[in-house]
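Run log // design_07
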């Protein structure tokens, strides 16, 4: 790893960042209702689309052509193939890159080194490029960003030119439509007489309004004249003073007469102090004063006559105006349908005119932008790539550290596997091995005596066994059932001949209707030979070696309902490597069977500690009590703490069932 870290070609990486935003100034923005939120380039999908535009083939080709990347070995390895690469191509182990066009090879190399992505929850796009040359690592993302800005500007210019090219004929066509629509309005107005007066209303409507206004004024004048005539008449009739009537007071003649009255009354008052009322001077003044009152009344009568004439004139004028207003209303009602049609023509002409003005405004804006080359792009480069001073690959310290840790892990795994497959991990401890036992020939079956003789002999033998401290087959089976033990371990210090005890006990328990399994752990398979038709059945060694399943290694006894798991046919050494699985297998068997009988053969007491559990019972099979091996085994059991073991002998027990072939535990 250290050599690789020092020899590997360093790679440099640089970034250029682009911000997607509207660059239109508030002073140059077109006068439209569009705002920033309506710009499709500024939403999430628009920014993501710009990422694809930046990494497009056209932009990359332009950048490769400007920077002459095709002549650099980093981007076109096919032009600088080494001897080893040529040999691989000749042997067919590698595809010939020269079959690909040069431009495609350069693009492929650029895409492998280019990474364009959008920063989440922002409008920032990052252009990242890695290269062996630090200058190229900075120049290429900057060139890509500049080319992207140029492409966007060209796209806007093309769109602007397309808009002006489309608007020009549309404006000419709309101009013709506006002229035609306005001509229709003028012709219909002339034919229907719906001429426009003041305030953009028709003459008929204006006349109707003027007549209504004049009629209201005349009615007001008539009512005022009648009211004034009534007040003057009431004053003349003596109901009120003439001086209280404004129209009378407003008369100049009456005002002069009233002044003359005041003068005469003043003279009379002055002369009354020296002259009597019957004096000629006093009578003359009184006559003049009376004459003034008559003149005032006559003048008031004239004012009343004038007011009455004015009211009558107003009444006649009111009648004439009413007739004129009725005729104008009839004319206006007749012109209503024509006015509706005229309004429709005017709306059509107005709509065409508004559309024409809108197109003209946009055309002027587009033409002005195109002629002055002012087309701001909705993006700007706010962070240019700089030449990196340090390579991002290889990182020597992390690579060497990771390689060191990986090497330690691999070495530990290899060591563990070597120890596991060597067999030392599964090999029993010193002194725990099973000593080889020579096969002991089973005693030949004796002729079956008469029932009474056999029963008497069996009773005598069982009585003798009880006196010597040894249990018979029946007592051992009964003791196992009564104790509730789920596992019985039989030791046969006298060899395979003693294995008959475990077989007979298992059959005795099975005959009682209890589910029992007999497991053969002897080296010679003595149990298998006495209970099965053949010794070639799969058994415990196959199960430990993972060559068979439980259903493949459990078989039926030929003479009872007991199930048997023989030694098996697998390699014993391979099976011993998985000896740690034996307690797990026994626990699984005890969940399926009431009692599991294990025949351990002539095993040492120390070697059975792995398979002894809390509910296990240890039994020693004895044929000849005086045998030295029996005494040694019992002493060893006591030495290792197994003081509750039982001694069982098969002597005197005679089975009474024939073999049943063709049975299967499965």
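design_07 sequence
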């Amino acid at each position: 790893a250290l050599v690789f870290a020092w020899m590997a070609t360093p790679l440099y990486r640089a970034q250029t960042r682009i911000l997607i935003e509207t660059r239109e100034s508030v002073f140059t923005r077109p006068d439209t209702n569009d705002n920033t939120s309506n710009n499709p380039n500024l939403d999430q999908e628009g920014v993501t689309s710009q990422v694809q535009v930046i990494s497009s083939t056209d932009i990359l080709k332009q950048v490769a052509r400007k920077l002459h990347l095709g002549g650099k070995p980093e981007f076109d390895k096919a032009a600088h193939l080494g001897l080893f690469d040529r040999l691989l191509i000749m042997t067919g182990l590698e595809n010939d890159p020269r079959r690909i066009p040069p431009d495609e090879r350069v693009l492929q190399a650029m895409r492998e080194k280019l990474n364009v992505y959008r920063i989440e929850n922002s409008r920032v796009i990052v252009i990242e490029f890695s290269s062996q040359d630090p200058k190229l690592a900075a120049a290429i993302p900057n060139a890509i960003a500049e080319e992207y800005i140029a492409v966007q500007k060209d796209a806007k210019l093309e769109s602007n030119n397309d808009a002006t090219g489309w608007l020009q004929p549309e404006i000419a066509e709309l101009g013709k439509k506006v002229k035609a629509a306005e001509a229709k309005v003028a012709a219909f107005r002339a034919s229907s007489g719906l001429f426009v007066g003041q305030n953009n209303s028709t003459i008929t409507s204006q006349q109707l309004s003027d007549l209504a206004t004049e009629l209201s004024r005349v009615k007001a004048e008539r009512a005022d004249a009648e009211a004034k005539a009534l007040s003057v008449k009431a004053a003349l009739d003596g109901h009120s003073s003439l001086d209280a009537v404004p129209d009378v007071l407003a008369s100049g003649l009456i005002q002069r007469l009233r002044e003359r009255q005041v003068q005469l009354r003043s003279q009379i008052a002055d002369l009354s102090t020296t002259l009597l009322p019957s004096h000629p001077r006093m009578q003359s003044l009184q006559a003049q004063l009376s004459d003034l009152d008559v003149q005032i009344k006559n003048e008031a009568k004239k004012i009343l006559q004038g007011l009455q004439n004015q009211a009558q004139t107003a009444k006649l004028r009111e009648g004439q105006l009413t007739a004129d207003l009725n005729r104008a209303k009839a004319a206006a009602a007749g012109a209503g349908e024509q006015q509706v049609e005229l309004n429709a023509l005017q709306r059509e002409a107005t709509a065409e005119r508004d559309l024409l003005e809108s197109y003209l405004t946009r055309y002027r804006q587009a033409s002005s932008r195109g002629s002055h080359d002012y087309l701001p792009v909705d993006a700007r480069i706010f962070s240019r790539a700089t030449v990196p001073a340090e390579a991002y690959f290889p990182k020597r310290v992390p690579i060497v550290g990771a390689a060191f840790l990986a090497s330690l892990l691999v070495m530990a795994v290899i060591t563990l596997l070597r120890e596991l497959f060597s067999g030392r991990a599964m090999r029993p401890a010193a002194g725990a091995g099973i000593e080889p036992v020579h096969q002991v020939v089973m005693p030949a079956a004796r002729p079956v005596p008469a029932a009474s003789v056999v029963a008497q002999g069996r009773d005598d033998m069982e009585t003798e066994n009880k006196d010597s401290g040894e249990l018979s087959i029946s007592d051992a089976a009964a003791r196992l059932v009564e104790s509730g033990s789920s596992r019985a371990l039989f030791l046969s210090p006298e060899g395979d001949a003693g294995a008959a005890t475990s077989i007979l006990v298992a059959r005795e328990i099975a005959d009682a209707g209890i589910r029992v399994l007999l497991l053969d752990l002897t080296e010679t398979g003595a149990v298998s030979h006495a209970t099965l038709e053949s010794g070639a059945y799969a058994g415990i060694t196959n199960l430990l070696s993972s060559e068979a399943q439980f259903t493949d290694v459990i078989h039926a006894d030929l003479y009872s309902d007991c199930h048997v798991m023989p030694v098996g046919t697998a390699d014993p050494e391979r099976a011993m490597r998985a000896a740690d699985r034996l307690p797990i297998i026994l626990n699984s068997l005890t969940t399926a069977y009431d009692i599991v009988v294990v025949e351990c053969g002539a095993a040492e007491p120390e070697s059975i500690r792995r398979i002894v559990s809390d509910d296990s019972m240890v039994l020693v099979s004895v044929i000849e009590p005086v045998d030295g091996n029996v005494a040694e085994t019992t002493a060893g059991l006591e030495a290792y703490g197994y003081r509750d073991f039982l001694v069982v002998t098969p002597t005197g027990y005679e089975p009474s069932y024939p073999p049943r072939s063709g049975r299967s535990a499965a």
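The first helix runs from residue 2 to 7.
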